[in-house]
Write a structure and sequence with these properties.
Elements lengths: L1 E2 L2 E2 L6 H11 L4 E4 L4 E3 H17 L7 E5 L4 H13 L2 E4 L6 H11 L3 E5 L3 H6 L9 E5 L9 E4 L20 E7 L7 E6 H15 L6 E4 L6 H14 L2 E4 L8 H7 L4 E5 H8 L14 E5 L3 H11 L3 E8 L3 E5 L9 E5 L4 E6 L13 E7 L13 H7 E2 L2 E10 L5 E6 L3 E4 L2 E4 H9 L4 E10 L7 E9 L7 H11 L8 E4 L13 H7 L6 E2 L5
Parallel strand pairs: 3-13, 5-6, 5-7, 6-10, 7-8, 8-9, 12-13, 12-14, 14-15, 15-16, 27-28
Antiparallel strand pairs: 1-2, 3-4, 10-11, 16-17, 17-18, 18-23, 19-20, 20-22, 21-22, 22-23, 24-25, 26-27, 28-29
Length: 531
């Protein structure tokens, strides 16, 4: 079936890998949380019970099941159960609210949802706008009244553990994850099982993950990094995963030592927060041997190495649609480099964004990628064929990111070409933020853009320039409350700028580059300064 972690192509699915691990290492620990420990055998049995519970509600192979849960064992049970049934896991950001939540649920057309009790009020508030949802399985207790058929997720214990008659293949869609658009709403990325497997395999091959490792996971499991680069990688390798519900800078080194962590994957801003903690007597008493970091910087690498003595820190580049085609090698990566192409499975070029012609080494252009392995890439955008065609031109997927490649093949990220904001690991669509703010009764027009963050690794901050309606004034405190009620927390602008008019071209197009170049201009209000 396999050689070490290199499964045969026909077994590149979540359910087949889990079944195999439950057979060969049944009593090995797979998942550790503060509340519970799960072996590979227990994970397999529970996944079958969850699959049968979902099947009892009419969920069939290929059906979409929405999941809105925090990190934890119930997330793992739902994810694995959906996979064993052959259904499609639709991962929903637990910060989503209002029109963000309505869009993804209507776009994916899920009839069944698994949701945490702490999020149910958000679902109820938009229930009348949901076109397809019928049944919700709730994790935890809630007194909320909703119009959907409600079931207790914990009832999986009442169902048998007989396996389904058919398991998914590597060609089948295993997951839908939503990524921010630039000129429209978020797009659902159709992710075949082979694509998911390669996320995990990349971590194993480039960071040396094996059965003896303990992987520390604090990034959200509704993103590809947390779920596939870390948790699925752990499953493929037969290792242990320590899962925390959320990241805590003050608890980080204590957890690393307490659980015997050997490997983790982090965002640049997470590493920066860790380095800002007071020195601890535990800083050099750990087993942590490898850390993935994106975006990577010399300052963060030097800081982590000097303080914690981590032997290997790896950089990488990727996205939900295109997997992780770039990794740095062990040892001393070039400062700021995203790494070199994982050429066994991906091809990558730097091209002129206008002509798609490949550029000479050293010249900045757009990163374009395509897979060498069938189904090792996204299959398109869910119910958005126009966006799929737009992303694929001349047989290449266009990332919208600018970079250059040196003579050794190392790639250096420069900036985003697309009008998309990247803040603390989240892609933010300026279009969606503008749409939400434009619903405010005092706003005539708005433009949302990014400025660099002064926090290392945080990437960018969100700025909203707003023009009041004639005869109206804008109370920024009230506007911030409005934003918090109508946007995910990560998308709420840090800066607000009230303007008489927005800079425009003669044809009326807003000149965002003018606003970006002005940066945090006089008159821009920083909401952090009021905290």
């Amino acid at each position: 079936m396999q050689s070490a972690y290199r499964y045969e192509l026909t077994d590149w699915t979540i359910s087949r890998v889990l079944r195999h691990k439950a057979t060969v290492i049944p009593e090995n620990v797979f998942v550790i949380t503060e509340e519970e420990t799960l072996t590979y055998r227990e994970a397999w049995i529970r996944s079958l019970q969850v699959a049968n519970m979902l099947g009892s509600q009419g969920v069939e192979m290929g059906d979409h099941v929405a999941v809105m849960l925090p990190n934890g064992v119930p997330f793992c049970e739902a994810w694995l159960g959906i996979a064993c049934l052959g259904a499609v896991h639709v991962a929903i950001n637990s910060d989503y609210t209002g029109r963000f939540l309505v869009h993804v649920l209507n776009n994916c057309r899920a009839r069944v949802m698994v949701i945490d009790a702490s999020f149910i009020d958000r679902l109820v508030s938009v229930g009348a706008e949901l076109e397809h949802l019928e049944t919700v399985f709730v994790v935890g207790e809630t007194s909320a009244v909703c119009s959907f058929k409600r079931r207790h997720f914990a009832d999986w214990r009442m169902y048998p553990d007989n396996p389904p008659p058919t398991l998914s293949t590597y060609r089948d869609i295993g997951c839908v994850m939503y990524t921010s658009g630039t000129t429209g709403p978020s797009k659902g990325v159709l992710m075949p099982h082979a694509h998911l497997y390669l996320f995990g395999l990349g971590t194993i091959e480039h960071m040396g993950l094996d059965e003896d490792d303990v992987f520390y996971i604090v990034l959200p499991l509704f993103h590809a990094n947390g779920l596939f680069m870390q948790l699925f990688a752990t499953l493929i390798a037969g290792a242990k995963a320590v899962i925390r519900e959320r990241f805590s800078a003050s608890r980080w080194i204590d957890d690393i030592v307490r659980f015997g962590v050997t490997i983790t994957n982090s965002l640049g801003v997470v590493a920066a927060f860790v380095l800002n903690q007071p020195p601890s007597r535990l800083d050099r008493t750990h087993r942590l041997r490898a850390m993935g970091l994106a975006p990577i910087s010399k300052g963060l690498v030097d800081g982590l190495t000097d303080r914690f003595g981590i032997p290997c820190i790896y950089g990488m580049y990727g996205m939900t649609e295109a997997n992780i085609p770039l990794y740095t090698t062990a040892g001393a990566p070039k400062p700021q480099s995203c790494g070199r192409v994982w050429s066994e499975f991906y091809a990558l070029r730097i091209v002129d964004p206008e002509s798609d012609e490949e550029l000479p080494r050293g010249e900045t252009g757009e990163i374009v990628v395509r897979p060498r392995q069938p189904y090792g890439f996204m299959a398109g955008y869910l119910n958005m064929p126009d966006k799929t065609v737009e992303a694929y031109r001349n047989f290449w997927f266009h990332t919208g990111d600018a970079a250059w490649m040196d003579d050794d093949g190392d790639v250096f990220f420069v900036d985003r070409i697309k009008d998309c904001i990247r803040r603390r690991g989240e892609n933010i669509s300026s279009f969606e933020v503008e749409n939400a703010l434009s619903a405010h009764p005092s706003i005539h027009e708005t433009a949302v853009y990014a400025v660099p963050s002064e926090i290392e690794g945080a990437e960018e901050e969100v700025v909203a320039a707003v023009v009041p309606k004639s005869g109206s004034t804008i109370d920024l405190e009230e506007l911030k409350v409005f934003a918090l009620e109508n946007l995910p927390a990560f998308a709420v602008p840090r800066y607000f700028r009230v303007m008489k008019e927005l800079p425009k071209t003669p044809t009326g197009k807003i000149q965002k580059h003018v606003l970006r170049n002005e940066g945090v201009a006089p008159g821009v209000v920083d909401t952090l300064s009021n905290r």
